[in-house]
Amino acid sequence: MRIIGVIIFISICLFNPLYGQTNYQFKVDLNAIQNDKLKVELQTPNLPKGVKTIKYHLPKIVPGTYSIYDFGRFVSKFKALTKSGKELKVKRPDSNTWLIEKAHKMDKIIYTVEDTWDTDKDNKVFEPGGTNFERGKNFVFNNHGLFGYFEEMKQLSYEITIDRPAKLQGATSLKHKAVDEDTDIYLAENYMDLVDGPIMFSEPDFTTLNIGNAKVLVSVYSPNKKVSSAFIAGEVEAILEAQRAYLGGQLPVDFYAFIIYLTDGYSNSGGYGALEHSYSSVYYLPETEPEGIAQTIRDVAAHEFFHIVTPLNIHSEEIHDFDFINPKMSQHLWLYEGVTEYSAGHVQVKYGLMPIEDYLDVIAEKIRGAEQHKQDLSFTKMSSGCLHEHKDQYLNVYQKGALIGMCMDIKLRTLSQGKYGMQELMHDLSKEYGKNKAFKDSELFAKIEELTYPEIGDFLKMHVAGTKPLPIKELLAEAGVEYAATKMKKEKTLGGLENALGFDYKTMSFLMEDATKLEDFGKTIGFKNGDLIKAWNGKPLTSQNINQVITDFMINVEEDDDFTIQIERDKEEMELKATYQLADVEVKHAFSLIEAPSKAQTALRKAWLGEYIQKEDLEEK
After folding, report:
1. Which of 64, 160, 218, 366 is deepest in the core (most CB within 10 A)?
2. What is the value of pTM for the model shown?
3. How many CA atoms lie within 13 A of 47 on its CB side?
4. Rg of the chain over CA atoms, in angstroms?
């Protein structure tokens, strides 16, 4: 691992000289931001002969989000101009479309774009898929939020010129060249590739890793400098090396960028997380202490990085030729998101980065999560309808979708005497298809059956296209894992505080509204009704930062740790001192290793999980 500057990064992103004059040529000046808005200029490409009117689009939806965001609604002051500067007539039939008349006379388009992260518009955009404009500090370009395309002209190449403050540098997987110390040109072969290459501009904090055949860039924006790219690179390096081994020793990419924005504020959309791309991923997470964010980064990075397999190399026609205005969803979210989520956890336990007990807890949590969703809805129907009628079921891709991947893996290992599992299947599907070859949605199950066993075809028909419950308990039992319907366990809680607190708008403080709702641990703190909470363990508590402060606390606190809470009681400032206690919680679904497994169970468990570690072994290390 080593820290690098922008010069080395630029040398990786060589300029492609094959771009001609018939490309899109955009220009944006980051120095000219006004009221959180940027001006976008497009020198229009040559239009097809005979075109009198043409449509210019920004996306209604983009790959990976599975939500309709209508990015055109953030555009204003749209003008189409001739070479002499005369305005052409423009109509706007919908939020994402501009119909330009006498387009054959058009020379330039100019419009203004508002960022999505702090907009007051309804239907908030999930931050990793949106845009952020902070003068002189940070700009996050998910390029679909700024740049569009003419109808039937998505395949033309793109050239994006960015003027920027000299102290801000760009992090991206796009090819680019530096024009001078404060100007860059970014290049994409077509609109899909442009959308697939987000950019973050910030004061450079870059670290590169060499993971086998690939260079991996880690770029971090941490407003209070709590977390560095070197720290995060150190946390993900072992995961990436494990993923390389998991994928057979070679990665299907030669360059990848982790683009990480850490916020000290709150999420406008109400969520935190990441959005995957073929050669990069964008993260929007709370700026906690480094130790507090470490496991989150490992888990999320493992998931997003595995998307280099699917949908990059395994995808349907719906994704290959994505319709940004009238999208058609694939039936196979169980593969794109579910198997990816499964692999992200499986790789950690198989390569000794997570103890087996923790992994079994992850499985149990997935089952509990899946139970919150419809049981009589097939996964293929949910996938194809995830934008509209089944939108509220989408999150099940990370729950039941991952369990589908696990069950298939164990079943494949059983049928092959341990020699073939999901790792091998994904490798064979990548060879069968690849980046430039898509499969037909209706033919995938038959192809998987052809590559594996008839029993796997039956499994997919019953449990993915059908609604028969997954045989989780039975399959895990074959691998020497036993099941309990309920189990008592020690867990971190807030002692019922979340149910007992209210908010006092006169003082803009949280207050103890009903102390009778506190649980055992909460009662030991010493609250009384009417207490105004001013600070939590030394950190001032406000409506803007409460989620971050409490999340930080819960991640880092351990049993028997002492902490303090500053309150105001009867107009007098005072401090409550407490000792953190774990709570006895009854949880549904629990798994544990059978103490004396049979030879067959031991062999299958080893084939499935490899040389896994147990907590007691980890503690000894």
Report:
1. 218
2. 0.85
3. 21
4. 26
Structure tokens given for 395 = 């999150």
Residues 44 and 86 in one domain: yes
How many domains does the chain fold into? 3
Looking at the fold, whether 81 and 197 belong to one and the same domain comes out as yes
| Residue 299 domain flag | no
For residue 611, count other CB atoms closer than 10 A to its CB: 8
Give the residue-averaged pLDDT of 584-610: 95
- Give the domain CATH number at 522: 2.30.42.10
Q: Give the C-alpha separation, 300 to 282, whole Å.
A: 10
The full DSSP string for 523-577 is HHT---TTPEEEEETTEE--TTTHHHHHHHHHHH--TT-EEEEEEEETTEEEEEE
| 490 Cβ neighbours under 8 A, 6+ residues apart | 559, 582, 583, 584, 585
CB 408 within 8 A of CB 464: no
Q: Report the SS3 class of residue 617.
A: helix
Query: Average pLDDT, stretch 241-260?
Result: 94
Q: Which of 383, 72, 113, 130 is nearest to 273 (CA)?
A: 130
- pLDDT band for position 621 (cuts 50, 70, 90): low
Residue 247 to residues 55, 240, 253, 299, 402, Cα–Cα distance (Å): 43, 10, 12, 17, 18
Total length of the chain: 621
Residues 35 and 79 in one domain: yes
Q: Which residue among 176, 208, 240 closes a domain? A: 208
CATH number at residue 105: 2.60.40.3650
